[in-house]
């Protein structure tokens, strides 16, 4: 088999030799072991978060990380046995030319709109007896060994890369310039400042699947949530809404903790996971996390995939409407009525006329109606649409749009299939589910109707912001303002689930 990746099973590194070389305050020691086990960390109540990815990729200048503490020493351990202590150090990433370049070959899927779609396709490949790896060098994709080229369809292409250099980290200060091997541990009893930003005190540098490096932070569930809640639902949200967000953010992170398994950490810090930034403390955030300590949502005794979003526009979606995945039993299409006992005459939104009636109806009967994208309009020209499609390699520069047509809707009215018909030559592109917003990212949601205003201009009229599955944050905020406790909020958006202590599940 031609080389394309190294299997990742146990992240255990050991140096079996002893060299005693004094370098400033640095020593190389024997038998230094750095153990990174993703599953064990989760069971202990920790997440490994990829703070800074793709280090060393920068072609214009060298990437570097400056670590500083005020009082106690930083302690650095490298897999090659190096140990170092100081209050300030610089790690730089240099490209070292190889004496003998080599070629990497692998099968790579076409770009996928989301991890959910990648995971579904990966599961189908596993059923065929294949061993796919989900990766994200710049977008979600699946890798397979080159030997599987006759077992897959045209969605996979051969990617050949000539490797001429190796990205290598070096430890620098006024006493030392020393090569490091990963994983590299950087810890301190003090808060560590990285490039002038305070982050915490427990970090790793790990080589990823792309030849670059990732700065990873180990965080307890509670510390992680302190950096998530302010940026996902807002620090000034009512306490009960913050509690609901704490439970589902914790649940979502545990369920999705294999997203970056190929790169040896659990989760990223962007919207591809949950937004995480150095914590913004507030009394309510601290209380919400403490009052729900280790609590998660479960279905049939297992953590659920606790999707959430900003605004459902008045009606929630099933998971199968939003991604190329099967429906989860705990998500359902339902109108988000404030008065659930009152009988409203709303038909299904599957027909354009019914959805138009829904979008024009009284907003005040729905939870979350004060969100700025609860209702929205977008006027977009042919040229703008084509530019979005070109950016996703779906059309060429000479393409022209003849028509836009919604060919399928889900039960909530969200667009499942959008046909884009081109002329000269006549050709149809069909965008499906999450591909729609990925390719046409001016759309806040898939809940919309389309009107043609003239030969060059289209009007999209819609509701909501996000995929529409699970908890609507704007709905949860309004429910909390009306006095609903967090458990009732969660019951509304996650059917047939229970709240349990995660630590009781893993004992």
CA gyration radius, whole angstroms: 25 Å
Percentage of residues assigned to helices: 10-25%
Continuous helix count: 12
Could you tell me the strand content as a percent range? 25-35%
- Give the overall form: globular
The counted number of beta strands is 26
Structural class: alpha+beta
Mean pLDDT across residues:
90
Low-confidence stretches: 1-33
- For the terminal residues, how far apart are their CA atoms? 40 Å
Q: Main β-sheet: number of strands, strand sense, barrel status?
A: 13 strands, antiparallel
What oligomeric state is this?
single chain
Short description:
By secondary structure, the chain is an alpha+beta fold.
Question: Could you name the key traits of this structure?
Answer:
single chain; 507 residues; alpha+beta; 13-stranded antiparallel β-sheet; three-stranded antiparallel β-sheet; 12 helices; globular; disordered N terminus
Topology:
Elements: E1 11-14, E2 26-28, E3 33-36, H1 38-43, E4 46-55, E5 64-68, E6 74-78, E7 82-86, E8 88-109, H2 115-127, E9 133-135, E10 141-144, E11 156-172, E12 177-179, E13 184-194, E14 197-207, E15 213-220, H3 221-232, H4 239-255, H5 283-291, E16 295-299, E17 302-303, E18 308-309, H6 319-322, H7 352-360, E19 376-381, H8 382-391, E20 400-409, E21 415-423, E22 427-432, H9 434-439, E23 448-454, E24 457-462, E25 471-472, H10 473-481, H11 486-493, E26 498-501, H12 502-506
Parallel strand pairs: 18-25
Antiparallel strand pairs: 1-3, 2-7, 4-15, 5-8, 5-13, 6-7, 6-13, 8-10, 8-11, 9-10, 11-12, 13-14, 14-15, 16-17, 16-26, 19-24, 20-21, 21-22, 23-24
């Amino acid at each position: 088999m031609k080389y394309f990746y190294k299997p990742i099973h146990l992240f255990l590194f050991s140096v079996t030799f002893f060299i005693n070389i004094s370098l400033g305050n640095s020593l190389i020691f024997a038998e230094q072991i750095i153990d990174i086990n993703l599953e064990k960390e989760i069971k202990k109540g920790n997440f490994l978060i990829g703070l800074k990815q793709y280090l060393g990729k920068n072609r214009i200048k060298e990437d570097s990380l400056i670590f500083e503490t005020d009082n106690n020493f930083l302690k650095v351990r490298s897999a090659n046995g190096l140990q170092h202590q100081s209050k300030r150090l610089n790690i730089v990433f240099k490209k070292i030319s190889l004496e003998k370049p080599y070629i990497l070959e692998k099968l790579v899927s076409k770009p996928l709109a989301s991890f959910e779609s990648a995971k579904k396709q990966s599961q189908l490949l596993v059923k065929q007896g294949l061993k796919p790896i989900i990766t994200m060098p710049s977008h979600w994709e699946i890798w397979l060994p080159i030997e599987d080229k006759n077992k897959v369809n045209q969605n996979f292409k051969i990617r050949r890369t000539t490797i001429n250099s190796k990205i290598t980290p070096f430890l620098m200060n006024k006493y030392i310039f020393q090569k490091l091997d990963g994983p590299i541990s950087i810890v301190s009893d003090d808060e560590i400042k990285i490039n002038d930003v305070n982050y915490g005190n427990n970090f790793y540098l790990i080589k990823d699947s792309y030849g670059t490096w990732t700065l990873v932070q180990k965080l307890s569930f509670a510390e992680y949530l302190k950096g998530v809640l302010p940026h996902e639902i807002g620090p000034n949200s009512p306490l009960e809404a913050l509690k609901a967000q704490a439970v589902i953010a914790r649940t979502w992170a545990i369920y999705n903790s294999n997203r970056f398994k190929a790169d040896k950490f659990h989760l990223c810090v962007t919207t591809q996971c949950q937004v995480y930034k150095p914590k913004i403390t507030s009394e309510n955030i601290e209380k919400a996390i403490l009052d729900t300590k280790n609590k998660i949502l479960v279905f049939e005794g297992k953590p659920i995939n606790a999707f959430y979003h900003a605004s459902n526009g008045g009606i929630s979606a099933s998971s199968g409407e939003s991604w190329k995945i099967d429906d989860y039993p705990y998500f359902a299409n339902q109108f988000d009525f404030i008065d659930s006992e009152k009988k409203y005459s709303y038909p299904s939104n599957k027909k354009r006329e019914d959805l138009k009636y829904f979008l024009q109806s009284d907003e005040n009967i729905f939870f979350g109606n004060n969100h700025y994208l609860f209702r929205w309009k977008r006027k977009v020209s042919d040229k703008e649409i084509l530019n979005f499609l070109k950016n996703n390699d779906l059309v060429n520069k000479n393409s022209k749009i003849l028509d836009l047509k919604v060919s399928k809707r889900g039960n909530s009215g969200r667009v499942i299939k959008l046909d884009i018909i081109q002329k000269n030559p006549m050709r149809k592109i069909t965008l499906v589910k999450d591909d729609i917003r990925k390719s046409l990212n001016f759309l806040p949601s898939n809940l919309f109707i389309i009107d043609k205003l003239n030969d060059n201009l289209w009007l999209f009229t819609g509701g909501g912001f996000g995929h529409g599955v699970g908890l609507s944050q704007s709905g949860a905020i309004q429910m909390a303002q009306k006095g609903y406790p967090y458990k009732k909020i969660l019951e509304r958006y996650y059917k047939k689930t229970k709240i349990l202590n995660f630590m009781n599940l893993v004992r």
